[in-house]
Amino acid sequence: MSDDLIENAILTLAEQRGPGKSICPSEAARDAFPEDWQGRMRHVRAAAVHLARKGQVVILRKGKPVDPENFKGVYRIALAPVAGDDPG
After folding, report:
1. What is the CATH classification number for the domain harbouring 25?
2. What is the pLDDT along the chain (88 residues), one digit of tens a residue?
């Protein structure tokens, strides 16, 4: 199913980017659907919101986490911080 494909692309790309780094949603769309990525952007957004609800990723605007239920405009996706993974 395409939702799983998109979620896997988001998680894989974010893991490859590493902790503290983010990906552009279009990267996940291009990875999952190279021929039709532009038409899949709303699906990427829905997948990112779903993963954020599950606590796997955070959605960022201007580098700051936002409520996945209520954000507009340009956003990026990063892996959610792991509990107990405090560098202090």
Report:
1. 1.10.10.10
2. 578 999 999 999 999 999 889 999 999 999 999 999 999 999 999 999 999 999 999 999 999 999 999 999 999 999 998 765 544 4
- The CB-based long-range contact list for 41-46 (8 Å cut-off, 24+ gap) reads 43/2, 43/3, 43/6, 44/6, 44/10, 45/75, 46/3
Residue 32 contacts residue 38 (beta carbons within 8 Å): no
In a domain? residue 86: no
Number of structural domains (the chain) is: 1
pTM: 0.90
HSE of 40, CA atoms in CB hemisphere, 13 A: 23
For residue 56, is it within any domain?
yes
Q: Give, for 12, the enclosing helix (H) or strand (E).
A: helix 2-17
